[in-house]
Amino acid sequence: MGIAGIAMLTGVLALLALPVLPSGPLLLLGLPLAGLACLWRPAHILVFALAGFGWCWWCAQNQLVMRLAPALEGRNMAVTGWVASIPRMEADYLSFEFTVEQLGGHAPGRGIPRKLRLSWSKTAELPLPGQHWRLVVRLKQPRGYMNPGGFDYEGWLFRHGIGATGYVVRERAAVLDDVRRFPLLRVRAQVMGALRQALPDDAFAGLAAALVIGDESGISREQWRVFRETGTAHLVSISGLHISLMAGLVFLLIRFTWRRSAWLCMRIPVTLAATFGALLAAIFYAAMAGFSVPTQRALIMLAAVAGATLLRRHVRAADALGVALLAVLLLDPLSAGEVGFWLSFGAVAAIFYVFSGRIGLSRSRVWELLRTQWAVSIGLLPLLVFFFQRTALVAPLANIAAVPVYSLLVVPLALLGTAMLMLWSWGGALLLKGATGIMALTWPLLVRFAQLPGAQLEAPSPGMVTVAAALLGCFWLLMPRGLPARWLGLVFLLPLFLPFPSGIPPGGFNVTLLDVGQGLSAVVRTARHTLIYDTGPAFSEYADTGQLVVIPWLHNQGIGTPDLTLVSHGDNDHAGGLRSLRAAYPRMPVLSGAAGRFAGARACLRGQSWEWDEVRFAILAPDADGPTDGNDASCVLRVSGAGGSALLVGDLMRPGEQHLLALTRHGLASDLLVVPHHGSLSSSSADFINAVAPQFALFPVGYRNRWGFPKAKVVAAYRAAGAKLLDTATAGAIEIHLWPGHKPELTSRWRVDEARFWTAH
């Protein structure tokens, strides 16, 4: 079963890697191949691979046809349906999922989504899960940032069946009737409300909710940082650990009580009763968590073991894992694109590999715990570096300290307290406060682990060959003691962490215009230095593109602290991400045209210049007596080397352009221009375009932005000047090399080059 599961997973991954979904008739060519494989026993495994490919294609096709038709974008439309998630309050707006009954008078079908993801700003309404609503919404197709190292939001929406995103237009919203759907979701929401009432103003109430119902919205940004940096995030995400713990505790409790009744034992054997009760408890807990992929995997494996126990059969660990893999892929093959899928199955596979056939070597429960942490830490290392370009070196120590506390104290108290709330609110609240109190006591220890020098080990984004070699190294390191040369596994792991050179020659540089939506962030990189020009927008106190785009890009490229961040001016769409960057890189120097707005920043003034790796950086504006706020305070940077030149001008407007022309008309010519003010009519005068005469004109714009940037007249002007035009809305992150001995070269359009079949174009 293990081999069959891997074969089916291979077929699923083969489809998920495609840039274009193959047509249905083309798939029919695989039927003869499957028939031949059925006739030849050694090739039976091919049938599972073809089945995985075909099943994933069917599910993907059904998702894609439910995407919003382009003709319906940006229109106010009436929609009726049901609230399909627990609404989350984010800053001054609500976000929730909505299952469509009718959209614009049409039932879900081709071009009409089955599910929407909506936001509702500044509303006093509080939609409840399962409620039947009529709303007026404005929608667009699923769209997200496309950058190296960034989160594939479009892929996430696709895998979760969301065919459009948008917002509620506040007029004419109404609850239609009292008929509700999604009873399980309603129960979870009621439990969450009870938890909030029992734990008002408790800093760890969000962690309790995450442990009980799997809702992580209440966990603060700082708490997530500590969990991430100590490798303990799994403690507050309902996973196999929690499901197994719940099942184990119920098994022991039932066995303990059942054995004390001869009447019960005569009718139902102890093992049968305890196993059945444990399985029911696991199903209940997985349901409360919304049947996420980790809980599905754990539940299926427990069901396989319980079934074997009830039938008095022995089940091998590999077979149980294989059954879980097959079942999860049959339920939802698209889940193979989720990071949680790989971490969940990877952790269990590593534990099984270390313990299978070697249980007798364990000396004590403590020794088994140490071996478990060793297995998970080593086994998941390649996956963590591949997905996140980092790993927590303190994770084994932090988990050894925290796992027993959370497993034996926090989780049982939180679950018992929640159950008791329904019967005795005061007693339930007391148990819940005991759980959060224990978290509060252990929290300083986790914080201390996160603050240890070298707690995090960062690495550049590895290629598939490097990951495959690292997995082989993990396999070798985790082999039984006594086998010779196990240390050779480290040799295969080393390439994960070896910094690779930028490849940029002296005198050359790269310019990467990142996709931050309607905003600007660009990175100029020389052979050994990195400059960030603007940081994109902030959306709330907790989210900005510094955190979502710029920092992941730096991790992906294996770059440590940037040598300089230049914030052109104070507008949010250029400066909003600076807060996250400064938190991540506290020693990073900052230069700005609006230095007064940012503590510790130096003023950006005309005449400043420096040289990195034979590449010259010069500030052309503003003057010392020029504006200190507004668009014309934008810091204008010209970068020049043996391979060409680039000009970045922020939101400079026509008066600022004319002033710049008066000072530096003959020093503006550049091969690459990041177009001022996103292609607005208030910038890009004819004189300015002629003075710069760019080969590449790059527009930093958001998809369907409210201002309609870039304006058609501005686009036409740059096209008439002979520039090659690119914009981040259609190209994603754009990278151009300006190297000695070469013409400026477009090397990457991330949305195009890394597209999958779900990527919008």
Fraction of residues in H or I helices? 40-55%
Largest sheet: 8 strands, mixed
Tally of DSSP β-strands: 23
Low-confidence segments: none
Say what oligomer this is: single chain
The radius of gyration over CA amounts to: 29 Å
Structural class: alpha/beta
How far apart, in Å, are the first and last alpha carbons? Answer: 40 Å
* Total of domains: 4
Question: Could you walk me through the main structural features you see in this protein, from its secondary elements to its overall organization?
Answer:
The chain is an alpha/beta fold and 761 residues long. It folds into 4 domains: 2-64, no CATH class; 70-181, OB fold (Dihydrolipoamide Acetyltransferase, E2P); 190-456, no CATH class; 509-752, Metallo-beta-lactamase, Chain A (4-Layer Sandwich), CATH 3.60.15.10. The chain has 28 helices and 23 strands. The strands form 4 sheets. An 8-stranded mixed β-sheet has the order 14-13-12-11-10-9-22-23. Strands 15-16-17-18-19-20-21 form a 7-stranded mixed β-sheet. Strands 1-3-4-6-5 form a 5-stranded mixed beta barrel. Helix 8 (221-230) crosses helix 18, helix 14 (339-355) packs across helix 15 (365-379) and helix 16 packs antiparallel against helix 19. The protein starts with a helix and ends in an 8-residue tail after the last helix.
